[in-house]
Design a protein that fits this description.
Layout lengths: L8 E6 L3 H16 L3 E3 L7 E6 L4 H17 L3 E5 L5 H7 L5 E2 L5 H11 L23 E5 L1 E2 L10 H5 L3 E2 L2 H13 L4 E5 L14 E4 L2 E4 L2 H9 L4 E4 L23 E7 L7 H7 L8 H11 L4 E8 L6 H14 L3 E6 L17 H24 L5 E11 L5 E6 L11 E4 L9 E9 L4 E5 L4
Parallel strand pairs: 1-2, 1-3, 3-4, 4-5, 6-9, 9-12, 12-13, 13-14, 14-15, 18-20
Antiparallel strand pairs: 7-8, 10-11, 16-17, 16-19, 17-18, 19-20
Helix pairs in contact: 1-4, 10-11
């Protein structure tokens, strides 16, 4: 038998948001399909690809540091991702990188790899599983349904890096989702820059899935995905009017398969004037009324959001308006960022910047209010039974086995966990029926429900 030619080995560093993670997965899939091996460390790699983030200053610094580390440890580095859109900035800091590309640029990355590490390939050998190469655990995966964004929020430069909205064909999305489920994925997390806008760019064109017509639209996509028999979680949902159509499609708070009663909606602020300065989409919607209506339709719905405090021109009165919104909205999970100027963002030119000390103080006050809300909402779950998904197993300091799991209300990495003592014969990716026995402001504790 003829020996297969040895392939090159590529190291990979993936930074940034889940959308960047999906870009990394697509590049890794291409690399494996062409016969490259993926090296687990710098020393074993012939070259290294660094997928960067460039959204805020701290992310830029992290990306530049990662590039520098890869150059020091390996010496041959290809840069891609959002910071790559600022190629001059990357090359100024690290002139010895082999190539620089922008975000969602798999073809350009592969061209750079080919130029610096040509690899022989045996077309008769299948090196890639149907679901592609994933960086997430086997039991959950991100499903990116579009690229880019049509909005021009004044604090954001993503459209300048990733371009306008480009929706993936719905049949292609559904085939990828099916492949994930067949590979054992138990939870699909739908992501994009603006999930609610899916299909706008193609005027909600009708596509086909398994021979049946299916409109390229968020509601129809959610209906199709929930038929696959796994958890489906929606992220980056802007509160357009048609989002109301999603709520009746959601399941209960028991954690059964289907569209989870969970929405990740980046409200960003509550003051109409600040939202107008931000140029936020759907800023005029009666948000509190809609949240109340969603909870009437599905009392178990869990709402996550992010907010920015200290935006240029934000007054103390407007900040207090935001705090009052928090108290009335009773959101389950919230992240808060002190405004940070981003190079190229229109908000940098707005008058009346808020002093750094005031921004930090407002962020602390904001999180203090939200912590009380989160603690109260989690306390209300004590005594309930629910189905949770196990992420990992471990031990407590005294040697007691413990499982870290998530409920329908907990997205990986950004929300809390459900800690289960003495989980028994379960493994990551398994579902478990538990009873909630304790809580704090972020996490839940549970005990397994023994079969009768």
């Amino acid at each position: 038998m003829k020996n297969l030619p040895s392939a090159g080995r590529v190291g990979f560093v993936s930074l940034g948001c889940p959308k960047a993670l999906v870009d990394s997965e697509q590049i890794l899939t291409r690399l494996r399909a062409e016969g490259y091996d993926i090296a687990p460390d710098y020393q074993g790699a012939d070259l290294v690809v660094v997928n960067t983030c460039g959204f805020i200053d701290s992310a830029v610094e992290e990306s530049l540091d990662a590039i520098g580390e890869a150059l020091k440890e390996n010496g041959k580095v290809i840069v891609t991702g959002c910071l790559g859109a600022q190629g001059d900035r990357v090359r100024e800091a690290h002139p010895s990188v082999l190539a620089v590309t922008g975000p969602h640029a798999a073809n350009e990355v592969m061209d750079a790899v080919h130029a610096h590490l040509p690899a022989p390939h045996d077309p008769f050998t299948s090196l890639v599983p149907p679901q592609g190469i994933r960086l997430t655990p086997k039991h959950f995966a991100y499903l990116k349904i579009s690229e880019g964004c049509n909005h021009r929020c004044t604090f954001c430069i993503i459209p300048s890096m990733r371009g306008d909205l480009v929706s993936r064909p719905i049949g292609e999305v559904m085939h990828e989702a099916e492949a994930l489920v067949k590979a054992g994925v138990q939870e699909i997390l739908v992501i994009s820059q603006d999930t609610s806008a899916y299909g706008v760019d193609v005027k909600y064109r009708t596509g086909f899935w398994n021979g049946k017509p299916l409109k390229t639209r968020t509601t129809e996509l959610a209906e199709a995905l929930r038929s696959l028999g796994v958890w489906v979680r929606l992220h980056y949902v802007y509160p357009y009017p048609h989002v109301d159509e999603l709520i009746p499609l959601m399941g209960s708070g028991e954690g059964e398969p289907g569209l989870l009663p969970y929405l990740d909606i980046p409200f960003q602020h509550a003051s109409p004037r600040i939202l107008k300065l931000m140029k936020r989409p759907a800023a005029s919607e009666k948000t509190l009324d809609r949240i109340l209506n969603w909870r009437k339709i599905n009392p178990y719905i869990s709402l996550r959001s992010t907010f920015v405090v200290g935006f240029p021109g934000e007054t103390e009165t407007e900040f207090e308006e935001l705090l009052q919104f928090l108290r009335e909205a009773q959101l389950d999970r919230v992240g808060c960022f002190a405004y940070s100027p981003v190079e190229g963002a229109a908000a940098n030119a707005l008058p009346d910047p808020v002093p750094e000390q005031v921004k930090q103080e407002r962020q602390a006050r904001f999180m203090e209010v939200q912590e009380e809300i989160s603690e109260a909402r989690l306390t209300n779950k004590v005594g309930r039974t629910m189905r949770v998904l196990i992420d990992e197993l471990g031990e407590m300091e005294n040697g007691t086995p413990v499982a870290l799991a998530r409920s329908y209300a907990d997205a990986p990495d950004i929300d809390g966990v459900v800690q289960i003592d003495t989980p028994g014969d379960f493994k990551p990716g398994d579902f478990m029926e538990v009873r909630i026995i304790d809580s704090d402001s972020h996490d839940l504790w549970a005990e397994p429900i023994k079969p009768a």
